[in-house]
Amino acid sequence: MAPSFDWWGKDAHRGTSVIVKMENPNWSISEISSPDDDDEDYGVGGGGQGEFAGGGARKGGRGKNAKQITWVLLLKAHRAAGCLTSLASAAVGLASAVRRRVASGRTDSDAASSPPEESPVLRTRFYSCIKVFLWLSLLLLGFEVAAYAKGWHLGAAELQRLVLLPSSFGVRGLFESRYSDWVRIRVEYIAPPLQFLADACVILFLIQSADRLILCLGCFWIRYKNIKPVPKQAIESESKDLESGGEDFLMVLVQIPMCNEKEVYQQSIAAVCNLDWPRSNILVQVLDDSDDATTQALIKEEVEKWQQNGAHILYRHRVIRQGYKAGNLKSAMNCSYVKDYEFVAIFDADFQPAPDFLKRTIPHFKNNEELGLVQARWSFVNKDENLLTRLQNINLCFHFEVEQQVNGVFLNFFGFNGTAGVWRIKALEDAGGWLERTTVEDMDIAVRAHLKGWKFIFLNDVECQCELPESYEAYRKQQHRWHSGPMQLFRLCLPDIIRSKIGFWKKSNLIFLFFLLRKLILPFYSFTLFCIILPMTMFVPEAELPAWIVCYIPATMSFLNILPAPRSFPFIVPYLLFENTMSVTKFNAMISGLFQLGSAYEWVDTKKSGRSSEGDLYSLVEKEPQQQRGASAPDLEAVVELEPQPKKSKKKHNRIYRKELALAFLLLTASARSLLSAQGIHFYFLLFQGISFLLVGLDLIGEQIE
């Protein structure tokens, strides 16, 4: 049956009544549904008068609808103008921020920001390589734009004919011949090795993605089965008298290594001194490596006040700061009284353990002589401070809840995080003690203890508060140390791993998963594939990267990474872009550690802001009001006497990072070239990734310093 077209002549719904409110500064629309105009409600009774009345109503309705439509259009135009104004103001603000950054003239190449042992040649070599790629991409972009303007929109078949028979395309002039030569060179000589390198990086990417997926599946299994370490004998904290001690409360040494930690020393000392443990069975060592006399005096005075309040606490200061943190811990362990203690808990200066920290960790050691380490999870007091801290929180939540927990449950081994952990002192001594040979002394001692057969436990439900770096400069230096140190350690530990008596699978896990895949391959392929090969494939289209490599798998991996921090889901796209941006720093650190370049031995203490001191001591104040007040009021007069001429504080500046800026222009240039090839996903990825590099290069992420 033929379809009916009666709908064409029907007078269906002619309009909807619209009420427009004009209130300064906001406009709002309220739509009220009305019956159709065909309803016979316009006149009363019959005859022409009723029809006239109905017709007048219809005409009036049409006139009102026309006016209302005019107001709606004006309203939409006003909103569009407001959006354009906000975008323009945002662009002006960004431009002014860029102008201030450039005018400050401070870059990451300044002598003050580089370690003295690093030569200028080593510092600029990596940047020079990126500049070569940038200038080459600009030259090729101009070449391709000129060819595109001449109408040479060539596909694969046309390119093959151009290589074989260039005269058939009317190639006569100098430019035409040069472009023909360039096409021939890239097809025959550049595309094959570039495609081979791209395929190799894709394989590494898939292997690393499979490893990440297996870790996530292991985490899901742990949650599904509710697997978690349970101590064989728990401490009955409610019934025990802390002052009386007893066999449940073992002898514990607590160490707080710090160096110029003026912002956070008070809350860390207060938190440790308020641990729920008999004072006769605990000793706190404040290991101060500060080289500033004022900071030394403040920390020492804080320790003395806690001593007067009955805390068992000592202050130690080294005159010769050799070996950084490892040297500090090694020196403290050489004290004669250490032999009286069986366990040592370590907390960095910005860490604040909960009062029941020892009660929830020490019981795991009882009747488990093979256990050498109990590691607690970190939580962050400033995770919502800015975009940088939010992105760090995503990374570290995945690290603890997935990587550390899965490795702890299934392998009884993971890297010690350097703080918020309790060691059996016998395990430390058996592994050889603290060594100053790398900048990752925590990973070093964990690997050596694992080779000796000691087991580790990770407690995901025991948290220790700390703070995240709030500036990009501090975060960048931290990541450089965390990624150069493992490569140093791998070179030093590889012979010991091969000669060790542990099983074959444990050796394979250490070499191929722990070191090669997660510490070397990950920064290598993420930088090479997404920052070098992908832009180059835009200029050499014969070498291709499929869309699922550029978009779908990275998005899936980012989704898996963000699962342990579900509140951060709105930041999944910035997280993906920022991780690729940080691959520059991680790749540079990996290379410097692997080949023992100067920056591999750089140790820079992560700058603390003291955010944790603003609200986290209230519980301690309520618990020990007199104790806490006395401990938080330093004697400034003594400090003034000790330091009559205080140092002038250095003015802080946001820096400009040259490598990130060079890569930003490289990626933006490649995105412009991808427009000529109509590659949608590649264009958007390169565009947003280039903008991400630009924002990071101008230090517009993290703490902003006026």
Please tell me about this protein's structure.
Residues 28-63 are annotated as: Disordered. Residues 43-58 have a biased composition (Gly residues). This is Glycosyltransferase 2-like domain-containing protein. It comes from Musa troglodytarum. Residues 344-546 form the Glycosyltransferase 2-like domain. Helix content is 55%, strand content 9%. The protein has 706 residues and is α/β, with parallel strands linked by helices. The strands form 2 sheets. The chain has an 8-stranded mixed beta sheet with strand order 5-4-3-6-9-8-10-7, sandwiched between helices. A two-stranded antiparallel ribbon has the order 1-2. Helix 5 (265-273) links the parallel strand 3 (252-258) and strand 4 (282-288). The longest helix has 57 residues, at 48-104. The chain is globular.
- Order of strands in the sheet with the most strands? 5-4-3-6-9-8-10-7
Helix and strand pattern:
EEHHHHEHEHEHEEHEHEHHEHHHHHHHHH
Number of beta strands: 10
The outline comes out as globular
- Rg is 33 Å
Unreliable spans are 1-16, 20-59, 111-119, 167-171, 613-649
Biggest sheet architecture: 8 strands, mixed
From the helix content, strand content and strand pairing, which structural class follows? alpha/beta
Beta-strand fraction estimate: 5-15%
Number of helices: 20
What's the average pLDDT?
Answer: 80
Percent in helix: 55-70%
- Rounded to the nearest angstrom, the distance between the terminal CA atoms is 76 Å
GO molecular function: glycosyltransferase activity
Keywords: Cell wall biogenesis/degradation, Glycosyltransferase, Golgi apparatus, Membrane, Transferase, Transmembrane, Transmembrane helix
Main location: Golgi
Domain Glycosyltransferase 2-like: 344-546
